[in-house]
Design brief:
Two copies of one chain form a homodimer.
Chain A: H1 15-23, H2 28-36, H3 42-48, H4 54-66, E1 70-75, E2 81-86, H5 88-91, H6 94-117
Antiparallel strand pairs in A: 1-2
Chain A binds a DNA duplex through helix 4.
Chain lengths: 127, 127
DNA sequence: TCCTTTACGGATAATTTTATCCCTATCGCT
DNA sequence: AGCGATAGGGATAAAATTATCCGTAAAGGA
């Protein structure tokens, strides 16, 4: 997230805040989900989340790495091969992500409609 | 979040994204937590999350309201009295928040240290 | 030699979110 | 009339995040 020095001190008083610190980022939970599902290579991840900007996905991968959520292995082959995996620590996030995934799937329609009501700019739901 | 028209269409493809849409916001999970714990009045909430800017808390309360997470009751007394409560829908978020709270509390120290290593600007943990 | 594939990141712009400041309104009390 | 307590929001600045563009590197193959 911060590739620059941030100015306002962040608060880690609340448990939720701590978790949010790790999970917040437009694609982080998706990235974790991808990796958990065996898509280890950056390429695969980019293809899966094609709405996402590569640069951003890379940044967020970097942060996940620095927060010990994913590990990174570089193979010295060519073309280059890199593999990310969840660390043990990272795996402890899985229950959270899966419950979020579940809640989101159950309520996607409702949230979508409320968002439309608010005239938000939402990409149409795929069929 | 958006009090203006947003330009980049948001994606609700993934369950997690949907959930994030509802939960993302610097203080939203905290606000929900407060309300769940009986702090119904804005005043109480502001006092509890005193690091948070009032204006922002109000904004986020407003969004939670528009997403049917909280309900709002205005009493015509003076001084004014307002009470927020979780809706049934809002209550379905509680398991998510509580698991996040738990994870965060367990790992606060570790995340804190990693953040310091990254030279992030973190408010010192209270004792 | 040029093109492809893979992975990555600098520089910068654009967008979105948060922070700051200060004003409104209402009633009861002094 | 002036003040306190309550809840809220307009206008705008600042900060943080995400998007866009394009360049690097390295080996193999046409």
């Amino acid at each position: 997230m911060q590739s620059y020095e941030n100015k306002i001190p962040q608060d880690l008083e609340y448990g939720v805040t701590v978790t949010m610190k790790v999970l917040a980022g437009k694609w982080k939970p998706c990235i974790i989900d991808c990796i958990a599902n065996g898509m280890k290579r950056p390429n695969q991840i980019h293809k899966k989340i094609k709405q996402a900007n590569k640069r951003v996905v890379n940044q967020q991968l970097g942060e996940l790495y620095e927060y010990d959520i994913v590990s990174k292995k570089v193979y010295q082959e060519y073309p280059l091969k890199v593999e990310y995996e969840l660390t043990d620590f990272g795996r402890t996030l899985l229950p959270i992500i899966s419950i979020m995934e579940e809640w989101g799937n159950e309520n996607a329609q409702k949230i979508y409609e409320l968002a439309i009501q608010r005239k938000e700019n939402i990409a149409p739901l795929e069929v």
